[in-house]
Amino acid sequence: MTGATQATPPIGATVVIDRDALDDLLAGISGQGYQVVGPTLHDGAIVYRDVRSAADLPIGWGDEQDGGRYRLRRREDEAVFGYAVGPHSWKQFLHPPRLRLWRAQRGENGEGLEFIEDSTEVPRYAFFGVRSCELHAIAIQDRVFMPGANPDRSYAARREDVLLVAVNCGEPSGTCFCSSMGTGPKASSGYDLALTEVLEDGNHRFVVEVGTERGAVVLAAVPYRLAEDVDERDAAEVTAGAVAKMGRQMPEVDLRALLYSNYEHPRWDDVAERCLTCGNCTMVCPTCFCTSVEDTADLAGEEAERWRRWESCFSLSFTHVTGGQARQSPRSRYRQWMTHKLATWIDQFGTSGCVGCGRCITWCPVGIDITEEVSAILSNPAPVEEAP
Question: What's the pTM?
Answer without folding.
Answer: 0.92
